[in-house]
Amino acid sequence: MFLLNTLPEHNQALAPVDAETLGEGAAQTVERFLAHRADRAETPLRSLPGLAAKLGIAATHIKDEGHRLGLGSFKALGGAYAVIRLVLEEAGKELGRTVDVSEIQSPEVQAIARRMTVACATDGNHGRSVAQGAELVGARAAIFVHSGVSAERVAAIARFGAEMIRVDGTYDDSVREAARIADANGWTIVSDTSWPGYERIPGLVMQGYTALVRESLRQMPDPPTHVFIQSGVGGIAAAVAGHLAIALGDERPVFTVVDPARAACIFETARAGRPVKIAHGEPTVMAMLECYQPSLVAWRVLSRVADAFITVDEEDAISVMRELSNPVDRDPAVVAGESGGVGLAGLLKAVRDPAVKDALRIDQHARIFLVNTEGATDPGKYEEIVGLPPAAVAAKNEMGAKA
């Protein structure tokens, strides 16, 4: 399914609060916070000239977030950043002064953090980031996971000392349960989705994602003309689209949001012209994107600066995992989890349909930007799909470099 954005708010300026959240100053703050993190190196931007030639376009670049902060996902940028911000703000209130990020390991801040509990619902990656952020500052974390989250992903979160709480049902059920229990216990919800009356913290999570956009703009020889970004509740798509709109202004790229067909809450919201909750159906292999209700903050951004919406099927996601693991014409191999390469799946679907390709104005001059949002966050599942363990795929690049 494909849909152009014909909403009245399309191409209007971002709401002032969103422009502040996703603007240059905010992104600079995120990078300053990152400077105080271990494993803070910029993630690689992979150029795929072989793929670009095959598609008849000028360039394809994919930001590889499978290397981010030791967590293997772009979400390492969001949840932990929000946790640290919230702890520093609480410390500022108690100490009666501004508390800088350089003080996160100080005894005063750590003592305050130990009295705080942060909580969230997760499909895997966001919870791992929140748990890591809590461990960094000495706070307690309670992470709610629904029945579809694999045992391997649960274990990856628990290793940061988080309390794991299983919830029957879907991701949206776990969001509601996390909010209910957190409210009863006085915990702070650090969610990557928003609802009426709860917007600032999800905004901070989205703000954390702007770091990958700033890095990419520095790493690319020329800014992109087109962007395809996958979406769950919409946070990563909104962060990338919003920051690019601010950074590039009238030269902003044509932005397409990519949804799993089985969990297309952003697509259906765009079709309805307002936020909608869609029915829970058959689970999707794109587990990190299996969301049935959009984030209100994310949708407010996307309604203005997303230009099109497209859905991809199960076989599309699986196919791009394999294609990225075994690339064409000496392109670098990319370890992309089940949700990681979905933006590329959207691009491939678009260029293979002449009407969609024309609607998006994709031609031989197009420069495409994609984000591999996750590596092999479930290595067993990855090997089952691709046929090789993630380490063997990654080793192809080392072998190519020596050849």
TrEMBL record:
Its cofactor is pyridoxal 5'-phosphate. Pfam families: PALP. CDD domains: Trp-synth-beta_II. It comes from the Bacteria. GO terms for molecular function: diaminopropionate ammonia-lyase activity; pyridoxal phosphate binding. InterPro entries: DiNH2opropionate_NH3_lyase, TrpB-like_PALP, TrpB-like_PALP_sf. Transmembrane segments: none annotated. The keyword Nuclease does not apply. Keywords: Lyase, Pyridoxal phosphate. Residues 41-359 form the Tryptophan synthase beta chain-like PALP domain. This is PLP-dependent lyase/thiolase. It comes from Sinorhizobium saheli.
